[in-house]
């Protein structure tokens, strides 16, 4: 799998899981996977056309979040990362 990462600034009051889920789910139809860490939010899906697996992890810190997108197809992973970064920026 190919891994793409990016770091984005988040709002100061963005400490709940709903904030991160809303941002990711506005971009892609994904399922939120339970995580043992409250600051790590994981999502998974597969593409309709080819069934390619896509895994997204958002690890929050105090003022930023690290987004990690894993996908077998590099182009899909790169485009999804760009769209998620845009969702967090707006």
Can you describe this structure in just a few lines?
This protein is an alpha+beta fold and 90 residues long. It has two helices and five strands.
How would you characterize this protein structure?
By secondary structure, the protein is α+β, with helices and mostly antiparallel strands. The chain has a single domain, classed as TATA-Binding Protein, CATH 3.30.310. Helices cover 30% and strands 38% of the residues. It has helices at residues 17-27, 74-89; strands at 2-9, 31-33, 40-46, 53-60, 64-71. Strands 1-5-4-3-2 form a five-stranded antiparallel sheet, with helices on one face. Helix 1 (17-27) crosses helix 2 (74-89).
Strand order of the largest sheet: 1-5-4-3-2
Sequence stretches where pLDDT stays below 50 over 5 or more residues? none
Report the mean per-residue pLDDT as an integer: 91
Please indicate the percent range of residues in DSSP E strands (runs of 2 or more). Answer: 35-45%
- Tally of helical segments: 2
User: How much helicity do the residues have?
Assistant: 25-40%
How large is the radius of gyration? Answer: 12 Å
Largest sheet geometry: 5 strands, antiparallel
Multimeric state:
single chain
Q: Which structural class fits the helix and strand makeup? A: alpha+beta
CATH class: Alpha Beta
Integer tally of domains:
1
The CATH superfamily label reads TATA-Binding Protein
Distance between the termini: 29 Å
Q: Could you please say which CATH topology applies here?
A: TATA-Binding Protein
Count of individual beta strands: 5
């Amino acid at each position: 799998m190919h891994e793409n990462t990016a770091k984005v600034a988040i709002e100061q009051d963005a400490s709940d899981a709903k904030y991160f889920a809303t941002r990711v789910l506005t971009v892609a139809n994904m399922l939120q996977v339970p995580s043992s860490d409250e600051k790590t939010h994981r999502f998974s899906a597969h593409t309709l056309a080819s069934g390619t697996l896509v895994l997204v992890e958002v690890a929050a810190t105090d003022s930023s979040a690290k987004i990690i997108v894993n996908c077998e197809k590099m182009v899909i992973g790169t485009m999804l990362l760009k769209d998620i970064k845009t969702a967090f920026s707006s």
